[in-house]
Amino acid sequence: MHKPRKQARQKRSKATQAAIVEAAARLLESQGRGGLTTNAIADRAGVSVGSLYQYFPNKEAILATLIRDKRRTLLMQMQQAVQETSAAAPSVALDALLRAGMMHQFIRPALAFELEYVEQRLELAAESAALAEEMAQLVLETIQRLQPDAGLQNARDVVAITKGLINAAAMAGEAGSDALFDRARRAVIGYLSQTAPEVTK
User: Name one GO molecular function term (predicted).
Assistant: First the structure.
């Protein structure tokens, strides 16, 4: 659902498609959902509306592509955090994952805020569930270093806890900060300490 009309293969076509998606992102940041039309996106991207429709059937397909791009970026950042801390202390690995999630939300906070609402309107539930499971597997790999008995549901809970805290902070206009990081870390450690008493700071 909400797929691009065609997959860009040539370098120029890929650049045009990327420009259209980035134009939608910038409009969401500057004008919100109310200012997002295919005409406005085409104008911001510097292409004709006809050219836009060669790549995307409607603005929903553009937004879905944008969301998928952001999801891939988040997953790559989490994977990188896990890989780079594989030999580090477990607490360092957990911190790296938390910071990856915060960076994803706050590097472009206005865009992340708008996409939270857009995602709910698009039929991406199956994709969202698949992403959540991939994230949970990465989290599980990390929290099992703190508590070997932790299971997949514990990892899902950690994802939900951190996502809830980060999203709530973003909606309140709070920037990504050490204070928010500390709150998220305490929440996760607190949860893990209740499910596995030997987990400590």
Answer: DNA-binding transcription factor activity
- Report d(CA 26, CA 183) in Å as an integer: 30
- C-alpha R_g of the chain: 19
Interatomic CA distance for residues 111 and 22, integer angstroms: 11
pLDDT, tens digit (0-9, with 9 covering 90-100), for 135-193: 999 999 999 998 888 999 999 999 999 988 988 888 787 776 788 999 999 999 999 98
The count of C-alpha atoms lying within 13 angstroms of the C-alpha of 176, restricted to the half-sphere facing its C-beta, is 18
Q: May I ask the CATH architecture of the domain 11-195?
A: Orthogonal Bundle (1.10)
pLDDT at 201 over 60: no
Residue 70 burial (10 A CB sphere; 0-12, 13-18, 19+): middle
